[in-house]
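I am writing to request your help with a piece of structural work I have in hand. Thank you for your consideration; the sequence and its tokens are set out here:
=====
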Amino acid sequence: MTGECRPGVGKVGGAARTSEGEHPEVEISRLRRAVADLEEKASLYSYLFDNLNDAAFIIGREGDFLDVNQAAVDRLGYSRQEFLAMRPQAINDGEHAAGVAGRMGEVFLQGSMFFETVHVARDGRRIPAEISARRIRFKDTDAILALARDISDRRKAEESLRESERRYRDLFENASDAIFILDKFCRYREVNRKAVEIFGFSREEFLGMTVYDVIPPQQVARSGEEFRKLPEQGEYDHFVGKMRTKDDRWLDIEVSSTAIFENGIWAGSRDIVRDITDRTRVEEELRAAKEAAETANVAKSQFVANMSHEIRTPLGGLLGLLAMLEHGPLDTERKRYLDLAKVSGERLLQVINDVLDFAKIEAKKLDMEERCFPLRRTVEETVAIFLPRAETKGLLLRCNLGEGLPGIVCGDPGRLSQILLNLLDNAIKFTEQGEIRLSIDLGKTGDGEVELLFCVRDTGIGVPPANQADIFSAFTQVDGSHSRRHGGTGLGLAISSQLAAMMGGSMWLQSPPADEATEQSTARGSAFFFTVRLRLQGAAGEESAMLPLSEEVAEEPLHGRVLLAEDDFVNRMLATALLEKLGLEVVQAVNGHDALEKIAGDRFDLVLMDVQMPEMDGFEATRAIRGLEAGREGRNRLPIIALTAHAMQGDRERCLASGMDDYLAKPIATAEIRRMVRNYLQGEK
């Protein structure tokens, strides 16, 4: 049985075919996949378009908006529908709107373009924008995709940078100091107006020079070293040197330098240069004036010391001789003359002491002693000195001691007595009738110290209000006229006030006038107050163990050989007589050479050595004696006590430094020399 064929009809694997030879189901499947791909791409495009950070606009050939993204809506405030009814010119400011159409045409021709514009939002905000425009196909037609980036922050940063540069330029050009910008080879790269003004070179001249062209040769090495260290240190300040001007003057300069880095690499420095020529000159003048003042002060101190020596030496001899004459037979008239001579000598000595104390205080070279002493006895002994004078003038002198005063205190009893002596002396001097009263009261106590309040009251002439402000100034007197009744140097109160301050206290005056406190009224009576702070030692009852004021201790005679080295004949004779009265054997020497020869050939128990002698002074002689002792083993150290009319601070230290053991200032008090000689001879130093 044979088969039968039909035109146009056939089977392949049991399935029908299309006219192109492809099965219809296959074609449908392919089309479906293509549609799905397109839908996926459209979705991705829509997602990307709406999620761009930049505002995106699609613009057609007719110059209208075909689409905008969400960023454009959010930034400019128009809805999508409003955008689609607008043209690009509507969102650009007037200055840029006119050129938008032309730029769009260029994009269609060239394919792309970048430019900047300013968009205007719905609320009127002006937003600077950077536009990136590119030609694209959109819905089967040519269009432009314009991406607009908001550059407001960048514009602000640029403006801030420009403003900073303007401020820097203003500061740079208007600075009061010269400013130089240098490269790392020390070449000038920029200079300000002040640099041109100070140094005289033009900007162009500076830019052809290096630092080394304008500094002295001796400064090159130091400047170069500082510059080489700059990258590591970052800066240096107050480099002082010199710099040349165009007219070849050398100015003193002070330089502060800061390293400049570009991209982390050292590029040079910024130098601020100050002209200190005037300041240096003033400093030199001040230094010269200070040195001159110091030289003058040294000369003054030396003059005071020399005058002290020249006056004290004969005065000490004079007072000593008067003291010796007092012990001899004298009739009434001669005794009166002797007393007058002693008073005159003591007054002269007080004047010298006031001048010396004032010089020491002025030079801040007054030493304060620190030792314990009985307060009541010290005060009573001081007051006792003035009893004869008070009685002679018919004045009542009283001393009132407050309750609770300590028995033993520690400080400088000599300076405390000096204050009381000055105040009591003035009170008696300026009081013709009535009384003088000294009172002492207890002040604050604590930390092992006590404050004492002293008051010296009188019924004298007082101090007028016009004079009270200056009463504690040096050389000030209530009556400074040539016809004044009362003498004095005008230093006592100034010294006393300073001494009170040095003892932790102060001094003040109360002097009320008789009627009204006016410049014309006459004040009557004064009250001088002062306080001091002293360390406490023991209790108030301890003073009962002291000897009565009138009791004297019999002095036992001393034994020993003393070498007295003194060039002044009167003082040598006086000291010899005094020492012999103490029971001592005295050998005399007239200078240092003489003393050295006697010591080399003899044995002595003590040496009293004048400091200022001809040929060889006491310092040199003492050093030579110590040298002899060093060369003789087994020989005991010979005590040497300095005798000097110098009385400035440093004299004692100089004596001890030369090898002396102690120090006595002329005129020498009998009790003091007796005490010191006894201490050294009996080993009670």
Remarks:
- The longest helix spans residues 277-326.
- The first strand starts at residue 55 and ends at 60.
- The chain has 19 helices and 22 strands.
- The CA atoms of residues 641 and 662 lie 5 Å apart.
